[in-house]
Design a protein that fits this description.
There is one protein chain. This protein has 477 residues and is α/β, with parallel strands linked by helices. It is 33% helix and 23% strand. It has 15 helices and 19 strands. Helix 3 runs parallel beside helix 4, helix 7 runs parallel beside helix 8 and helix 8 runs parallel beside helix 11.
């Protein structure tokens, strides 16, 4: 047993001074002030600290094959780095080959993830449509604990699906009570612009954002919202990076449509000036999709989080080291897309969100943990309450560090926040009651993470079914 004593417990719905007793089974037993110390119990002094639910990153790519490379963080190194930053669970992505089996791909990713140091779940990508996909979505939802499916509207010729696949897959997911995630960029437009830029001799990293302007994200976001609206299905838009996409989500929600939006911490604080560096590698290290945007888009993203129109924060953690980025030295379309971030997300959001006055501590907990748990059916996580998993971070709101690739725990040779001084750090991270990080000492255990099986038919789907059954005037069907 462990007793966390003397801290301020912060949940998404309020804060209170209380002790937290964690059982040997990794579950929170009691949350109350003045708890007695049970015999043989370890006591953690949380005086001056905030006791919060561990972060949940809903968007990571550990050891993912992509664009001729494999992302450099595996499920152990990536989740261990997350624990150092206060993140205790991830939702990663199973990416089947086009034409391949979804179930076999899920089994492959389960095997890869057995080394994870923190708990994990999976979204499964739908990359094509046929009767086997229809059947295997059902198997995954009923028997494998998968309640969310991913769709790429980008990466033409590789992962991109057309509107017909979206209609079939979103409809099938709705039948199963599952939620569809969407990478919303117009892949046909991106492919055309890439070819045009290359023909004009623009081959460096600066051509990457030019090939994916905000309008291609805005158009795709509006289109998939319309498709989901035809079916009456909830939809979740990943890595919203523009004012255009935020506005489309806000309009849909105002009309009664159940649309969720995710923001990457990187997009909130880094702008497209990084692509203008004279250092080719530095610019290439920031190549991700969607790309970093002109600074004015950040205002819309923060406003979306503050107003609740955007609900979650993630990292799209997908690391590639210098030799891998160099694959695109003569052609920007061959630079592997992705940046690191899992270790720094919580501190970036505290420093630039809470300390800057955008967010309250309670709102911080919502967008880093609780909302993801609720949206994706991680029912035992996201709150410091009796019966929840003892995934807990003791947060020091005044501690400061300067970010550097020389000291981070991510298995990658750069950091997009290099040199940024952040206030607000994970003092101690507990995963199911065990200390995985304490005051700079990483104690993450290889293989300690568990697969989180999620039930289909979450609150978003159930609410829409009630809307349609009752002919609610806000129904989008």
């Amino acid at each position: 047993m462990k007793l966390i004593r003397g801290g301020t417990v912060v949940n998404g719905d309020g804060s209170t001074t209380a002790d937290v007793l964690c059982g040997d089974d990794g579950v929170i037993l009691k949350v109350a002030s003045g708890l007695e110390i049970p015999s043989g119990c370890d006591v953690l002094d949380a005086g001056g600290l905030l006791v919060m639910p561990g972060g949940i990153d809903p968007h990571t790519h550990m050891e993912m094959p992509f664009m001729g490379s494999t992302s450099s963080d595996d499920f152990y190194t990536g989740t261990a780095a997350g624990l150092a930053g206060g993140t205790t669970s991830i939702i990663d992505f199973v990416i089947p080959e086009v034409g391949g089996s979804l179930v076999e791909a899920w089994k492959l990713w389960r095997n890869k993830a057995e080394k994870a140091a923190s708990d994990y779940a999976f979204h499964v990508a739908v990359t094509h449509w046929d009767e086997r996909v229809h059947e295997e979505m059902g198997i995954l939802a009923r028997d494998c604990g998968v309640s969310s499916f991913k769709h790429f509207m980008a990466y033409k010729g590789a992962l991109m699906v057309d509107d017909g696949v979206l209609l079939n897959s979103v409809s099938r997911a709705m039948e199963l009570g599952a939620l569809c995630n969407i990478h919303a960029e117009n892949g046909d437009a991106v492919a055309w612009m890439q070819a045009d830029l290359l023909a004009k001799g623009m081959k460096g990293p600066a051509a990457h954002p030019a090939s994916r302007p905000p309008s291609v994200e805005g158009e795709a976001t509006q289109r998939v919202i319309a498709i989901a609206g035809l079916i009456g299905a909830p939809i979740y838009i990943v890595h919203v990076s523009t004012e255009d996409a935020t506005a489309a989500i806000t309009r849909a929600r105002a009309a009664g449509q159940r649309v969720y939006g995710e923001v990457l911490a990187q997009h909130l604080v880094i702008d497209d000036s990084v692509y203008q560096s004279d250092n080719w590698l530095s610019a290439a290290q920031h190549v991700m999709s969607p790309p970093f945007r002109p600074k004015h888009h950040q205002k819309a993203l923060w406003a979306g989080l503050v107003s609740g129109q955007l609900q979650t924060t993630a990292t799209d953690h997908c690391c590639f080291c210098a030799p891998q980025k160099m694959n695109g030295k003569d052609d920007f379309t061959k630079i592997p897309n992705g940046t690191p971030g899992i270790e720094d997300r919580m501190s970036v959001l505290w420093h630039h969100g809470v300390r800057a006055g955008y967010l309250t501590p309670e709102e911080f907990v919502k967008i880093t943990s609780t909302n993801t748990a609720d949206i994706f059916g991680m029912t035992s996580k996201g709150r410091i309450v009796e019966g929840a998993d003892a995934d807990i971070v003791l947060w020091d709101p005044e501690a400061t560090r300067t970010v550097s690739a020389a000291t981070h725990h991510q298995n990658v040779d750069y950091n997009v926040y290099e040199g940024m001084t952040l206030t607000g750090l994970a003092h101690t991270t507990l995963m199911r009651g065990d200390i995985a990080w304490k005051e700079g000492d990483l104690r993450a255990t290889r293989g300690a993470g568990r697969y989180v099986s999620r039930k289909s038919g979450g609150s978003a789907v159930d609410a829409l079914k009630r809307q349609m059954a009752g002919k609610n005037p806000l129904s989008v069907a």
